[in-house]
Specification:
The chain has about 400 residues and is an alpha+beta fold. It is built from eleven helices and 20 strands. The strands form four sheets. The protein has an eight-stranded mixed β-sheet with strand order 6-5-14-15-16-13-17-20. Strand 5 and strand 6 form a beta hairpin. Helix 1 packs parallel to helix 5 and helix 1 runs parallel beside helix 8. It is globular and about 65 Å long. The protein binds adenosine-5-diphosphoribose. The site of adenosine-5-diphosphoribose has 28 residues, from helix 1, strand 9 and helix 8. Keywords: FAD, Flavoprotein. InterPro entries: FAD-bd, FAD/NAD-bd_sf, RIFMO-like.
């Protein structure tokens, strides 16, 4: 079994296979230090934490991560808290930076004797439509080309990876959507100024205050598509955050800190169907991209990985039913998450939707429904926390 990519998807597949005694080799293009330091997502759904705990992969997470039960919408300078946990049986989110999870998963796999090859260059899958595919790569240390023969290939190498690109043109159907919205994504060495994630709607555009750790916070500022970080010197970032997150009738201060990362993201969504081709199975960002709005990317990757590992283990026990259903099973959750993130994307960007006062009014109606109806809050909570 070959796993391409050591992000959350590949590492969960590899750890679960290892625990079931199925041999696998993980090929990762970058160094161990690189993958263990790459800051990305941070919100983990309760079912993913429970899955990791079941497999003995959540010890440090449960020690270090903060559990969260509420989030806050700021509209016209007023705060509206949603206790989504209370609306969904007391389930809680965990805030744990993706690179910490990756660090734990790398350690667990290596400690269990797993075969993880970093700096694997020019990784290429071959013979995917045969019963005996193989993967070639160039060893980063020796420069030698190596061939791995395997039964299956798990393509867990993210959106720009080689796995999906290796499938013959026309074999997969791609669904993509550009939202026409840009986000400046900022990581700052600033302690959080809030206990709950803040989604602020402001006439100048959305602003978000996300949580990562006691010393680092992530912020988002809506900006034009294709904007450049050069247009966003630190002083402007803080000035916009202060303005868009401001509260009208309450004292609240935003704590500043050194900015350690700034990127412009163009909101887009993408799903490939089916999530497999021959003996290649795609998982995580290799198969779908979701806007960061609802915090779903890492959780979908974990769900795919769990389903794939379980299906592969069942194969070696004599049943291919789960492998046969793998794509359909994953896609049901993927589309449900896409629908939720689309809803949320439309709601939180309404104030800047200059093109349509109609869409603006719809979004306000949706928010009012969410904030005043327990039934609407329960639906939001189920989607936000993730289906069990
Ligand atoms: N060969 C080997 N490894 C590769 C290749 C390649 N050609 N291309 C990419 N990779 C590696 C990347 O270096 C990375 O470590 O595959 C891994 C893919 O990891 P992620 O991009 O983190 O994707 P995934 O595991 O699906 O996790 C999804 O990541 O994008 C975030 O926020 C998103 O939380 C979501 C999560």
């Amino acid at each position: 079994m070959a796993v391409i990519g050591a992000g959350p998807a590949g590492l969960i597949v590899a750890n679960l296979l290892r625990k079931a005694g199925v041999d696998c080799v993980v090929l990762e293009r970058h160094t161990r230090a690189h993958v263990e330091q790459r800051a990305r997502a941070g919100l983990i759904e309760p079912r993913v934490v429970e899955m990791l705990r079941r497999f003995g992969l959540a010890d440090r997470l449960l020690r270090m991560a903060d559990a969260h039960t509420t989030c806050e919408f700021r509209i016209d300078g007023r705060r509206h808290e949603i206790n989504y946990s209370a609306a969904h049986g007391g389930r809680r989110h965990y805030v744990y930076p993706q690179q910490e999870l990756v660090t734990d998963l790398v350690a667990a796999f290596l400690d269990a004797g797993g075969d993880l090859r970093f700096q694997a260059a020019d990784v290429r899958p071959h013979g995917l439509d045969t019963d005996r595919p193989w993967v070639t790569y160039v060893d980063g240390a020796t420069g030698e080309t190596t061939r791995l023969d395997c039964d299956f290939v798990a393509g867990c190498d993210g959106f720009h990876g080689v796995s999906r690109a290796s499938v013959p043109a026309g074999a997969l159907t791609e669904h993509s959507h550009e939202h026409g919205i840009g986000w400046l994504s900022v990581l700052a060495e600033a302690p959080p100024s809030t206990k709950a994630i803040i989604y602020a709607l402001h006439p100048d555009g959305f602003a978000g205050h996300m949580l990562r750790s006691s010393t680092v916070s992530r912020f988002y500022l809506q900006c034009p598509v294709g904007d450049s970080v050069d247009n966003w010197p630190d002083e402007r970032v803080w000035a916009e955050l202060h303005k868009r997150l401001a509260l009208r009738d309450e004292d609240w201060t935003l704590t500043e800190g050194p900015i350690i990362e700034k990127r412009v993201l163009d909101m887009r969504s993408f799903v490939v169907e089916p999530m497999s081709y021959g003996r290649l199975y795609l998982a995580g960002d290799a198969a779908h991209i979701i806007t960061p709005v609802g915090g779903k990317g890492m959780n979908l990757a974990a769900h795919d990985a769990e389903r794939l590992a379980e299906a592969l283990v069942a194969h070696y026990e004599g049943s291919d039913a789960l492998l046969h259903d793998y794509s359909a099973t994953c896609l049901r959750r993927v589309w449900r998450s896409q629908e939720f993130c689309q809803w949320m994307t439309e709601v939180i960007h309404a104030s800047r939707d200059a093109g349509s006062s109609f869409r603006q009014r719809l979004a306000v109606a949706r928010l009012e429904h969410l904030l005043t109806s327990p039934a609407a809050a329960a639906v939001f909570a189920e989607n936000y926390l993730g289906q069990d």
